[in-house]
Amino acid sequence: MIQEKIYRMPSSVSEAINFAKSNSDSYRYLAGGTDIMPNKFQGNDQISCLIDLSKIENLRGVSAENNMLRIGALETLSSLAKNPLVIENFPVLIEAILSVGSPLIRYSATLGGNVLCENRCLYYNQSEWWRQSVGYCLKCDGDICIATQGKNACFSEMVSDTAPALIALNAKIEYEDLSGKHIVPLESIYTGDGVKPKNLPTEAIVHAILIPSDKKYRCHFKKLRERESLEFTSLTCCITADEKNNIRIVLSGVDPKPVLIEGLITDDPETLITRAVKAARTVDNDMYTRKYRREMIKVYINEGITKINR
To answer: Which domains does the chain possess?
Structure first.
């Protein structure tokens, strides 16, 4: 039986959520499409209904209000890279944005989509025939993690590059679901479960990212990937220190969720590095080996702390 394909383009958040309720079996919200559509074409996503959010104007815009910079979830990465408010207040976010994909991808990709992008794994993000021949994994209805040969946990990598920068900047996420609007710390939406990496309700729509603008940060950002353009991260590291010397070290690409280490800039660097390496549940599911990426965690954090302390 051929599955009916449904495409909806609501003009409001409430209308989009109602569409989601009426297609509760199989739907995805669509913004830039740079993550969802490749997964769909590869057969990793079998959804039958796309709900296009691109016409919802109140999900756009960048504004300063109440000591916060509010960035609408539908703002494209390319537009944010040129936005004066972002450039002036959060240059480290610009670094993160410009590390994502290629200029063409950033033209379509949205900030909301990037913080919510699906976890990736060398054994999952392949064509259907490849996955069938090698054997299905936990993330596609199999019974084993091919990378570890374990049956209890999926270690697909959280690969957002903007999320580490935003979390290091103490950002919050504003979303709406059936029960209303909510604002929570961005890091709280990630579960650490590679199969179901987000704990947002399925019908939730992200309104905006909120970044406190009343703090002055010293920042460091670095990304490891095989090619500067196109490649997803194998390790992204963002470090911030505020005027009170509170330090936040955030990693992606080395665990199913962002790795967040908090402390003081005066803490022993080796202690901070050891905590980060221990927290990162890195496995061999990337083009770079587990051993190499764990060594690069040490290099990037040491480099960042040295830079911030100058």
So the answer is: 1-52 (3.30.43), 70-116+156-308 (3.30.465.10)
Return all residues near 197 (Cβ < 8 A) that are at least 6 apart.
118, 119, 156, 158, 190, 191, 256, 257
pLDDT digit string (tens) for 72-130? 999 999 999 999 999 999 999 999 999 999 999 999 999 999 999 999 999 999 988 88
Q: CA–CA distance from 124 to each of 97, 130, 234, 265 (Å)?
A: 25, 9, 15, 38
Give pTM, 2 decimals: 0.95
Amino acid (1-letter code) at residue 162: T
Contact 28, 51 (CB under 8 A): yes
Distance, CA of 33 to chain centre: 14
Q: What is the mean pLDDT of the chain?
A: 93
The per-residue pLDDT for range 199-230, each reduced to its tens digit, is 999 899 999 999 999 989 999 999 999 988 77
